[in-house]
């Protein structure tokens, strides 16, 4: 085969291969979407983050507006500090609130951002005041059982009192 | 009776020692190829030629297999996910299984049987027809001139082929899931993008395919270079290439997966 | 560096190849013993002998692919057993070897085969390489076949292309391993004449390993007969033809029985057939 034809084919092959890697990175993976230069960082403290992981989506009204950039632990307050990278396309009021939710019953956890009513907007490095930690299923079940036994005990007490 | 038993035990021992010493020779060969790689990078057209034979000529089988594997994943995945009412996760299932495992592994297995066997047969025949000896008599080092360009050509081709395989697979899954069955297009892609991490999944997949490429190519070149210079010797070496490199791919995949995704 | 410094020393000796008391063993097996052989510059010498007597081994020793077990082997005044890899490669640039079936590179055209060494060892511009390749191909009469692939050549043509390839760098010495094997009478004569003519016009020295007595006796200057690892006889073609030595006589005239028996050593024939009393 002629050297030029060979070069052409190999060039085509390499371009296609690199395009495939780019396709995987941008379209299949999450490298696209939010560029870190186009986001502002907002911090929030939670008493419990449950199974939240870095790069989990930040949603508002169900739309992805950012990602969890970093998860840390504050040794003074014993709370989790989560840094959110929110797209600069979506400014939020200063008194917005963040809560950790689960998509579906057993799905992945994400942060739901609820807009407040403040005139001033959040800027890079701000801290969210109002937060709601993850609902841990074990605690919920425990609480439910506890209440149940409590109420049955109450009912029994009431019955006894009546007699 | 006793003698026969002892004999067979001795045979096992001898074969084991042979295997281990062959691995030693192969490792030395690998090192030799590395040390002699300089000249082939200075004459890059030698490598380009080998990218053609290893990469471009494997394109058809890789693209077609990738598409079908993706379509099957789409069908099977849909059937399973549907029972839990989470068809939207189809994109996640298809892309993660392709990018993490099937892409690198299946592409490498196909590569071993398509390009690896061809490399072994070619080098073995060059040896059997005294082309290697002739080259040495012309004061040209066959490791630098014949082996090293093939090594780099194949090692460069492998990750590109694996990426093409995965990309075709995702398209296949999309075709079956979204176009044919009617899973919601938006959630197909967005759930996929939320679940697939560039570093964790895609980069690790690429690293896997590079490792597989190095393993398959080294085995193929070594088997060819080491083959007895007869028709029978070359054909047996070709078979050994496919068997050994398939086992190597699967073994390495387990080790790499353990390191990458479990953090052992 | 040996080429310039030793030049004066080399030219003292008329012999390009000097082999003294050389022995060679493959593992335990003694293949060559006490070989004494020399080739004068500009000569064509032939090494003859029956199959498996060690001719190819001797050729590989001269080419430096094997090292002698004992004895000395000098090529152009250089002791082959003292050379390291780099020195050997430097010497081999001035040597050519014609393999039995040509050993052309099957993935290259005839042109690229002949150009191979020029591209590997020189920095000549492509136009000059083209001229040189056409000159070499013309010398073997195959200029017109330059863009054929080796698979498209006949056996005799392959051999000639290989010859053109081995003279690409104008070597001082060419080694031929059975250049006549499997050739038809015409190709055989053509190849024989070519070896003689190229040796003379390029001022080379040729060592031809062959079975073909009649063809080689026509063109060589000196003949060595090897049998079972030792040199049985030697002499000019005229001396060989006149020789009364039984081995040489058997070989030259192709007789079935003589010092080289027709039968491989075997037990009694009758016993093997189960007819023993
Ligand atoms: N690589 C090898 N290992 C062991 N023995 C060999 C090897 N090559 C050749 N021999 C043996 O050495 C002897 C001489 O072989 P060779 O030089 O090829 O003979 P020929 O005269 O036919 O060219 C033969 O008996 C052959 O069996
Ligand atoms: Mg021979």
Protein described:
The complex is a heterotrimer of chains A (163), B (264) and C (277). Chain A has 163 residues and is α/β, with parallel strands linked by helices. Chain A has 2 helices and 8 strands; from the N terminus they run H-E-E-E-E-E-E-E-E-H. The model of chain A has no long low-confidence stretch (mean pLDDT 83). In chain B, helix 4 runs parallel beside helix 7 (142-181), helix 5 (90-128) packs across helix 8 and helix 9 packs antiparallel against helix 10 (231-261). The mean pLDDT of chain B is 91. Chain B has helices at residues 2-35, 38-42, 44-54, 59-83, 90-128, 131-137, 142-181, 185-195, 198-226, 231-261. Chain B is mostly helical. Chain B is globular and about 65 Å long. Chain C is α/β, with parallel strands linked by helices. Chain C has one domain (20-257): Rossmann fold, CATH 3.40.50.300. Chain C contains 12 helices and 10 strands. Chain C has a 6-stranded mixed β-sheet, with helices on both faces. A 4-stranded antiparallel β-sheet of chain C has the order 2-1-4-5, covered by helices on one side. Chain C is globular, with a radius of gyration of 21 Å. Chain C starts with a helix and ends in a 5-residue tail after the last helix. Mean pLDDT of chain C is 85; it is low at 1-12. Chains in contact: A-B, B-C. Residues 55-56 of chain C line the site of magnesium ion (MG).
């Amino acid at each position: 085969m002629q050297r030029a034809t060979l070069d052409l084919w190999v060039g085509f092959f390499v371009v296609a291969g690199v395009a495939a890697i780019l396709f995987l990175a941008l379209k299949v993976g999450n490298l696209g979407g939010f560029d870190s230069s186009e986001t502002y960082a907002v911090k929030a403290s939670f008493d419990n983050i449950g199974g939240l992981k870095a790069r989990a989506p930040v949603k508002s009204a169900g739309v992805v507006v950012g990602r969890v950039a970093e998860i840390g632990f504050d040794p003074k307050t014993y709370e989790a500090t989560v840094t959110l990278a929110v797209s600069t396309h979506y400014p939020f009021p200063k008194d917005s609130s963040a809560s950790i939710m689960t998509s579906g019953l057993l799905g992945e956890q994400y942060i739901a951002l609820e807009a407040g009513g403040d005139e001033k907007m959040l800027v890079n490095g701000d801290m969210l005041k109002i937060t709601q930690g993850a609902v841990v299923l074990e605690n919920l079940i425990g609480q439910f059982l506890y209440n149940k036994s409590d109420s049955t005990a109450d009912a029994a007490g009431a019955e006894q009192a009546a007699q | 009776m006793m003698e026969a038993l002892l004999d067979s035990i001795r045979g096992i021992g001898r074969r084991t020692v042979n295997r281990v010493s062959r691995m030693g020779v192969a490792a030395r060969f690998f090192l030799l190829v590395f040390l002699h790689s300089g000249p082939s990078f200075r004459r890059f057209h030698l490598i380009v030629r080998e990218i053609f034979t290893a990469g471009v000529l494997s394109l058809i089988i890789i693209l077609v297999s990738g598409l079908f594997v993706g379509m099957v994943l789409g069908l099977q995945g849909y059937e399973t996910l549907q029972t839990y009412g989470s068809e939207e996760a189809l994109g996640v299932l298809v892309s993660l299984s392709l990018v993490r495992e099937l892409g690198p592994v299946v592409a490498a297995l196909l590569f071993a049987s398509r390009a690896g066997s061809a490399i072994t047969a070619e080098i073995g025949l060059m040896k059997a027809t005294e082309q290697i000896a002739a080259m040495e008599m012309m004061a040209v080092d066959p490791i630098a001139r014949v082996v090293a360009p093939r090594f780099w050509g194949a090692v460069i081709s492998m990750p590109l082929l694996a990426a093409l395989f995965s990309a075709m697979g995702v398209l296949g899954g999309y075709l079956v899931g979204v176009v044919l069955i009617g899973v919601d297009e938006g959630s197909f892609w967005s759930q996929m993008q939320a679940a697939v991490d560039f570093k964790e999944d895609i980069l690790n997949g690429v690293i896997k395919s590079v490792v597989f490429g190095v393993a398959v190519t080294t085995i193929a070149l070594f088997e060819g270079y080491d083959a007895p210079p007869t028709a029978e010797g070359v054909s047996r070496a070709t078979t050994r290439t496919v068997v050994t490199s398939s086992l190597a791919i699967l073994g390495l995949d387990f080790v790499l997966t353990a390191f990458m995704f479990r953090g052992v | 560096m040996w080429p310039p410094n030793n030049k004066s020393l080399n030219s003292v000796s008329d012999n390009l190849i000097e082999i003294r008391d050389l022995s060679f063993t493959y593992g335990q097996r003694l293949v060559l013993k006490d070989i004494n052989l020399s080739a004068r510059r500009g000569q064509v010498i032939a090494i003859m002998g029956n199959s498996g007597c060690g001719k190819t081994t001797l050729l590989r020793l001269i080419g430096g692919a094997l090292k002698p077990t004992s004895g000395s082997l000098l090529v152009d005044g250089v002791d082959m057993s003292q050379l390291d890899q780099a020195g050997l490669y430097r010497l081999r640039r001035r040597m050519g070897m014609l393999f039995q079936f040509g050993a052309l590179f099957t993935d290259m055209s005839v042109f690229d085969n002949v150009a191979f060494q020029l591209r590997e060892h020189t920095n000549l511009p492509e136009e000059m390489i083209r001229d040189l390749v056409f000159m070499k191909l013309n010398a073997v009469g195959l200029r017109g076949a330059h863009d054929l692939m080796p698979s498209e050549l006949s056996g005799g043509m392959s051999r000639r292309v290989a010859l053109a390839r081995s003279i690409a760098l104008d070597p001082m010495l060419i080694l031929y391993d059975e250049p006549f094997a499997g050739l038809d009478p015409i190709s055989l004569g053509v190849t024989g004449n070519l070896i003689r003519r190229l040796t003379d016009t390029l001022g080379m020295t040729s060592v031809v390993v062959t079975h073909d007595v009649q063809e080689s006796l026509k063109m060589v200057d000196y003949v060595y007969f090897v049998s079972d690892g030792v040199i049985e006889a030697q002499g000019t073609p005229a001396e060989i033809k006149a020789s009364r030595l039984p081995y040489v006589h058997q070989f030259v005239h192709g007789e079935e029985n003589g010092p080289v028996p027709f039968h491989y050593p075997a037990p009694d024939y009758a016993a093997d057939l189960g007819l023993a009393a």
